[in-house]
Specification:
Elements: H1 3-12, E1 19-23, H2 27-30, H3 39-43, E2 52-55, H4 57-63, E3 72-75, E4 77-78, E5 91-92, H5 96-101, E6 106-111, H6 118-135, E7 139-143, H7 154-166, E8 171-175, H8 181-185, E9 191-194, H9 202-214, E10 219-221, H10 224-227, H11 232-245, H12 249-265
Helix pairs in contact: 9-11, 9-12, 11-12
């Protein structure tokens, strides 16, 4: 592996082989998402506990302090929105030269396997990988499912993840599912878990993250279940304990409760 590629991956994946990525890129298709209306304010208290930030170039420039940040995974796909006809009809929005200017450690792109725009999104990934390899910048492929949540099963996610790896993605972001080891076993590059919409309880998050780590994921790329929580710092500290300290879901819940009470008593 080229030194630059190796160095950038080492910025993202920590010495224990695990990673906690914090995505705040949701506005590129959702607009001012709840609790992400002011991204700089949302992310500021969370950055000390994240290993990398997944963000668009616009929010990075406008909202993130260049002197106090973490490694950046730059979101470089888009072109559709929640009010449009099809979220799968994305293109590449940001050049690799721009990623270099912004000192990105990686770039991220969504792929939509099984949709009408499967071919276009997979060729977008291939083109981005070609450019990334030229510049020594790893590509993270996001196995997006849009509104079709029923696609979140091991067969589909395993298929999408493997295809992304075959086309050259250095990291794959996908959803946790039952039999998640089927996904990770079939994917020859590191897998991080997405979170999706906020769930009802913190313990639900801790359970699926712990299960995914036990079944081969290296970490998470989790946003709404962190910063939409009423106590986001408590949430990310508990998540970090699972990812980097091998905490159980019950221990993570205990950490969350201690941190939540400390915040409440301030």
């Amino acid at each position: 592996m080229d030194w630059g590629m190796d160095n950038r991956l080492a910025q993202l994946i920590q010495p224990d082989g695990h990673a906690l990525f914090l995505p705040i890129d949701h506005g590129y298709f959702q607009g001012p998402t709840r609790k992400l209306e002011q991204p700089g304010n949302t992310v500021k208290p969370l950055l000390p506990y994240a290993d990398a930030l997944f963000v668009t170039r616009g929010v990075l420039r406008a909202c993130i302090d260049a002197k106090r940040t973490k490694p950046v995974i730059l979101r470089v796909s888009g072109g559709t929105s929640m009010v449009g006809k099809d979220l799968a009809n994305e293109g590449i929005t940001t050049s690799m030269e721009e990623a270099v200017r912004l000192n990105a450690s990686a770039v991220g792109i969504s792929v939509f396997v099984g949709t009408d725009y499967e071919k276009e999104s997979l060729l977008n990934l291939s083109k981005l990988v070609n450019e990334g390899e030229r510049y020594g910048i790893p590509v993270m492929a996001v196995t997006a499912v849009g509104r079709e949540l029923e696609k979140r099963d091991a067969r589909y996610l395993g298929l999408a993840s493997r295809i992304a790896a075959e086309l050259g993605a250095r990291v794959v972001k996908t959803y946790w599912c039952e039999d998640f080891d089927r996904v990770t076993r079939g994917c020859p590059v590191p897998v991080v878990m997405a979170g999706g919409p906020q769930v009802d309880t913190e313990l639900e998050v801790f359970n699926f993250v712990h299960d995914g780590m036990e079944k081969g994921a290296i970490g998470v790329n989790l946003g709404r279940n962190v910063w939409q929580n009423d106590y986001p710092v408590a949430m990310i500290k508990a998540m970090r304990a699972i990812i980097h300290q091998k905490a159980t879901p019950e221990k993570a819940q205990e950490i969350y409760e201690v941190e939540r009470r400390a915040k409440y008593n301030e």
